[in-house]
Amino acid sequence: MTAKTCETRPDWDQYYIEMTEHVASRATCDRGRSGCVIARDNRVLATGYVGSAPGLAHCDDQGHLMRQVIDEDGVTRSHCMRTIHAEQNAICQAAKFGITLEGATLYCKMEPCRVCAMLIISTGIKRVVCLKRYHAGADTREMFREAGLQLDVRQDEIETYENQ
Predict the structure, then answer these.
(1) What's this model's pTM, rounded to 2 decimal places?
(2) Distance between the two ends of the chain, CA-based, in angstroms?
(3) What tens digit of pLDDT does each residue of 19-30 get?
């Protein structure tokens, strides 16, 4: 019997980025079905997806709780306030189960927002790998740079979604 070689075996970053897509299938807000995987030493520590806090209504069931937000560049955007971002849910999951994230890598669909970036820095995560850019990612990039956190964006294009 000869050993089979797998020519399409993904590297670890690709493996975890692809895993975020599966995690996102649990999301409960159709505007931003995204997922997050946090790993260290090639082991998954926590996962999270876009959804409401436990016990609260989900967008898919109740509808969106939209608010208008004016970005620094003057552009008015719509944000759903009913949900928690995938990155926040993954960090909360780790906290709930006493898992330290020090030195870990976080994988997500797009660059984290400002709030998620602050949480990521505060937990000691050292690297973020995302598939695409975020329309308001300049703050995140600057904070990560100041904190010495590595940011790897796999596709240099901005993620778009409905009712942005």
Answers:
(1) 0.88
(2) 55
(3) 999 999 999 988
